[in-house]
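Notes, p. 3: input format for complexes.
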Amino acid sequence: MKIVVIIPTYNERENIGRMLDILVKDEFSKIKNHKMEVLVVDGQSPDGTSEVVNEKMKKYKQVNLLLTNKGGLGADYAKGMKYAIEKMKADAVFEFDADFQHDPGDIKRLVAAMDLGADYVIGSRYIPGGAIPKEWGMHRKFLSFFGSLFARVVLLMLNVHDMTSGFKLTKTEFLKKVDLDHLLSRYYAYKIHILHDVVKLGAKIVEVPIVFYERKEGSSKISRKDLFDSFRVVILLRLRDSKRFIKFGIVGTVGYMLNALGLEFFSGVKVTQDLANFFLEWKGSWPLSIASEPSAWAAAFAAEVAILSNFILNNYWTFASKRITNPLRFLWKFSHFNLTSAGAVVIQFLVVGLAVSLFGDTPLVRQLSLVVAVGVFIVPYNYTMYNVFIWKTWKVPGLRWLQNRRVD
Ligand code: GDD
Ligand code: MN
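Output follows (408 residues plus guanosine-5'-diphosphate-alpha-D-mannose):
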């Protein structure tokens, strides 16, 4: 893998030279199985940080420099990440500070965690073995810990212990799916947004304990407003998730109503009668007899109507920001969606067909069996299929080959 250590800098002249020496000369040589490089993203520091970096670039081919107009830590990281992905073809990137608050010796420990299967490695201060500067006063310790706890609780991420660590290793396979051009913050809170999205994308998260040291040279650029900014980002992410969840529920309800109406409608039309008649000779032999029930076919058609409605409403409304407009891609996605929903058609066919053949073909039997089909079988079925094939939040070892196939 190619791993790029991204170091944002603003007035880090006293730190960056020594940091680059330690990284390239001491640390990278200890990591034998990966290609290690550095990308310094300098906000055109007035103290001449970039001159020091330019000197080091003459000495080490592993050092790269990207100049920005200091758009804030998040904005500059977004630029650096895109540069590492597009220009440097990185497979994974580090977020790392220039000021020695992060120990360069910890880099290999985070890499080792990725080698063991993690997609997103957090250098964590709030798990056993991790620490924040003992020099920090009570008030700062309190803010840092409870700030993190607030974000964990509101975003339902209790399994992540350090939400704001600036020391991370992320596989670009996941970062590429994060909308880096529209991060909710240009400042320090950008990292809460990326963390949130990467978790939602189903990345395997691992926390490695790190000690966060006190800064010796230069000064911190974090300010009071970053506290409020982080608060704002957490709330916005929460609202965004809830909105999706509610929309998803409405789409499901509309789908169900169309399903129920469709069942009544189709059980009375000629096509389903004809289909059932076609299988009339199976009437006596259960379970084949299900095919001779018009309402079984009606239930299958109704399921397809619900699938169509779910697909269209989710595409144009719930996930409007990722709307598919290209007609060919739309058809391709729709057939893929149909394939994963095919089981729902079969389930409805079987459950409703069985019910009407046992209890008689009345509206009550049809509707009650539809409730059972959807509630008992289809909701868990869809939930499983979505997690495995659509959102890919569950990784199934035996199905890796199917899951890795990209459809978008
Ligand atoms: N290019 C660029 N642009 N670099 C910046 C900017 C910016 O706007 N702001 C800060 N930096 C650089 C600094 O020069 C340093 O290398 C690194 O980003 C971290 O900045 P600090 O100012 O030292 O941050 P901190 O020590 O207060 O905060 C650290 O800990 C926080 C958690 O307590 C960082 O690691 C944060 O990311 C982390 O959330
Ligand atoms: Mn710092």
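The chain has a mean pLDDT of 93.
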